C-alpha cells in the first residue's frame, strides 16, 4: 500500500510474545486516526497471530489487506528480513516506534544492540536518532535477566509499558482491557484517542 506523504508515520512491531491482539488493536487505532503505519511482524509473531487470533497467515499480504484495509490511514508491511527497508535508515523520518507485544528475546536484542533483523535495526535507529521508542513487554514471571535488560533500556530513555491492564475504569470485556493498554501507549506518544474513560472523567460522569 502506498503511504500518504502528508501524514505522520509510525513504526509498529509485533513479536512472538503472547498478546498479538494488542498490536492489532494499536494498528487499527492508528489507521483509524489517519496515521501511516510501517508494520514489521517477526516469524514468531505471525505464528502467535495464527494461534491466538485464528488468522490464515498463508498469504500474509492478503490477510493484512483484509484486516487493515479501508481505513483513513495507510500501512506498509515490511518483511523482517528486509534490512534495506526505509525504516532501517536514520535519514528516514518517522514519529517513533512501538513494539507491542515485545518478547523477551526481542527486548534482549534491542538492549544489546543486536540489529540482526529489520525490527531490531529499526529500534536501534530510534535510539541513535533520539526518537520515541515504546516497548510493551509481555512475559510472566520475570527473571533477573529480563529485569536487567528492561532497566538498561529504561536508563536510555526507552519507555516500558508492560501489558498490565487496569480495572479502575470498570472494564466489561476483553476489548476494554486491550483498548486501555493501547490507549496508555498512545498517551505516551501524545497521540489523542478515545479508547478508555480517564479517572477524572469517570468521576465527573458519576457526579452527573
Automatic annotation (TrEMBL):
Annotated residues for binding of FMN: 16-18, 42, 103-106, 138
Reactions performed catalytically: dimethylallyl phosphate + FMNH2 = prenylated FMNH2 + phosphate
Enzyme class: transferase
Keyword annotations: Flavoprotein, FMN, Prenyltransferase, Transferase
Source superkingdom: Bacteria
A GO MF term: flavin prenyltransferase activity
Pfam family, one: Flavoprotein
Enzyme Commission number(s) from the entry: 2.5.1.129
Location of the Flavoprotein domain: 8-189
Annotated residues for binding of dimethylallyl phosphate: 168, 184
Purpose: Flavin prenyltransferase that catalyzes the synthesis of the prenylated FMN cofactor (prenyl-FMN) for 4-hydroxy-3-polyprenylbenzoic acid decarboxylase UbiD. The prenyltransferase is metal-independent and links a dimethylallyl moiety from dimethylallyl monophosphate (DMAP) to the flavin N5 and C6 atoms of FMN.
Similarity remark: Belongs to the UbiX/PAD1 family.
The protein, known as: Flavin prenyltransferase UbiX
